[in-house]
Design brief:
By secondary structure, the protein is mainly beta. The protein has helices at residues 111-114, 128-134, and strands at 5-9, 19-23, 28-31, 35-40, 43-48, 55-59, 67-74, 84-90, 96-101, 118-123, 140-141, 153-160, 163-168, 176-179, 188-193, 199-208. The strands form three sheets. It has a seven-stranded antiparallel beta sheet. Strands 4-5-16-7-12-13-14 form a seven-stranded antiparallel beta sheet, with no helix packed on it. Strands 1-2 form a two-stranded antiparallel ribbon. The radius of gyration is 16 Å and the shape is globular. Keywords: Signal.
């Protein structure tokens, strides 16, 4: 019997639709990564391995444009080897937006590193390097209070119009607030990791506005 992951699409405070489905490996489309479904107690976990360049696992048949995404994420405290997040508004395997985290910077004593804990990018044009050089401090921020970089943390990504807000571990103050840089009309959503990074995710909830 193959393991499954439950993805619950619930109603938020805004207009939305509700649906529940289960996901197997056949419902995930990995790109440049090996995918495995594991367990954390009774909870299913999606794991992507580490390789060069970025990687993503798309949720086949799942669409998302507006609303909110909630997810538990785990990376690691290994400098430049832990970039984990969620890709959304995907058009294809190269064109999409990402909110991702650098757990190795969560509790860094260097204030410059600490300020690079959560990041927005719009690939392929607006990568982290371009945004850091041209808009320093605007599309990446610290996460306060800082989570343990080696343990699970909870993220909520809210998208309303062009505004994107990222909340961590239930904090009512967003760690990151940005306006999206592209309007691609993409609808794909998936699990994303950066160069040389692996990652783990569980308890995905998608709140989709009508």
């Amino acid at each position: 019997m193959k393991p499954i992951i439950a993805i619950i699409i619930l109603c938020a405070s805004f207009n939305c639709f509700a649906q529940q489905k289960t996901i197997t490996e056949k419902d995930l489309v990995p790109v440049n990564r090996l995918l495995s479904l594991e367990k954390d107690g009774a909870t299913q976990v999606i794991h992507l391995d580490a390789k060069g360049d970025d990687g993503v696992a798309w949720l086949k048949g799942q669409e998302f444009t507006q609303g909110a995404i909630e997810i538990d994420i785990k990376g690691k405290d290994e400098l430049q080897h832990s970039f984990v997040g969620i890709a959304f508004h995907g058009v294809d395997d190269k064109t999409f937006e990402v909110i991702y985290f650098r757990p190795f910077n969560f509790r860094a004593t260097d204030p410059v590193r600490k300020a690079h804990a959560v990041q927005y990018v719009a690939l392929p044009v607006y990568d982290w390097e371009k945004l850091r050089n041209e808009h320093p401090g605007q599309y990446e921020k610290p996460v306060n209070p800082a989570p343990d970089p080696n343990r699970w943390f909870h993220a909520r990504i809210e998208i309303k119009g062009a505004a994107i807000k990222v909340f961590v571990n239930g904090d009512t103050t967003p760690s990151l607030t940005v306006n999206e840089l592209v309007h691609s009309n993409g609808k794909m959503i998936g699990y994303w990791v950066g160069n040389t990074s692996d990652g783990d995710w569980k308890n995905l909830k998608i709140y989709s506005a009508k």
